[in-house]
Amino acid sequence: MDVIRQFKHQGTLFSASNLSYMLRFAELRGATAEQLLANTGLAVTDLYTNNAHIQVWQHLVFLDNLRQIIRESSLAIEIGLASNLAKIGLYGMGLMSSTTLWEAVEFGRRYMRTQYPFFETTLEIQNDTVVITLHEIFPLERFRTFIVENFLIDAAEIYRSLMLGEYRPTKYQHFELYFDFPEPDYFAAYKERLPELHFNQPANQFRFPAKILQQPIHTANPALVHFATTHCELEMARLGLFTNWIDHVRALVICHEGAYPSIQSLADQLCMSARTLTRKLTEVGLSFSELLEEARLKDAQNFLKNTQFRMDDIAVKLGYQNSANFIRAFYRWTGITPSEYRKSLEQPKHAFDAK
């Protein structure tokens, strides 16, 4: 069975923003919206309504149309290189408003499936290098090379823009792309415009030095991050990407500039009173303070695993007045100190990870 027919039975939804961006890109190359949207069941107006969504099969039909109309083997590269943060709306706002590259990466990974439904990612630090690996959720079959190329180049362009703090052409620094297929001939013409490339690799990956995780983003705006986060959380819930209600609540307990939400602000985001939220948490055997401790532990472990931040820096990011308070809290949570936890990461497996 063709992959498009398979997806028609799944009904998976995601944001229409990338398709609308590709539509505008193709129109500048002479294609018409009628040609590009043929057999998708979509009209142009469907793509520009508030919170516009499409199904995966519609996106794939669009890609078929696009590649038949614009017969360029390097089309995925061209679309990726033309990428910008504005094309992905409030998701892009959350990225560009993050304080550091690390926060942008975590925001991007947390909400990626609202924009890119084909992949999940894992993040590791290997020899002082951040390694973000793509894992396919769906079998992409004949669309695979195009989608992987486009996604990785798109991601590199967006994160390059974050590092620059502005949009302007420049040679890539820091970033490397790894592909698990042989190098196509058409990549040769783009070597000067792309990050360092590696083909025939074990996995599709995006890599950069761990030291730049602490790089500040010039467009940082904590208030806008909060706004974008709220939108993305609602989008995750709308698309059914949370498995249950408590997962949704946990996902909203996010630290911004050293401050976690109060129970009232959390309740406001969930469109209920603080009393109702307290009652609903009690019904599932939880309290708001337990949720805060869960979030702090998870964030602390992420910082200890994936950055070289000092204890003082981590304490501030988690809302503690000093590192001594943070160390005491971490010991209460895990029975070991943060330094001991970092050392335990050198072992193949350890027992202190947040679940």
From TrEMBL:
InterPro entries: AraC-type_N (IPR032687), Homeodomain-like_sf (IPR009057), HTH_AraC (IPR018060), Tscrpt_reg_AraC-type_HTH (IPR020449)
Keyword Transmembrane helix found: no
Gene Ontology terms: cellular component: cytosol
Source superkingdom: Bacteria
Xref: Gene3D superfamilies: Homeodomain-like
Residue span(s) of domain HTH araC/xylS-type: 247-344
Keywords, in A-Z order: DNA-binding, Transcription, Transcription regulation
UniProt-listed SMART domains: HTH_ARAC
Gene Ontology molecular-function annotations: DNA-binding transcription factor activity; transcription cis-regulatory region binding
Record-linked PANTHER family: HTH-TYPE TRANSCRIPTIONAL REGULATOR GADX, HTH-TYPE TRANSCRIPTIONAL REGULATOR VQSM
Protein name: AraC family transcriptional regulator
Lineage: Bacteria, Pseudomonadati, Pseudomonadota, Gammaproteobacteria, Moraxellales
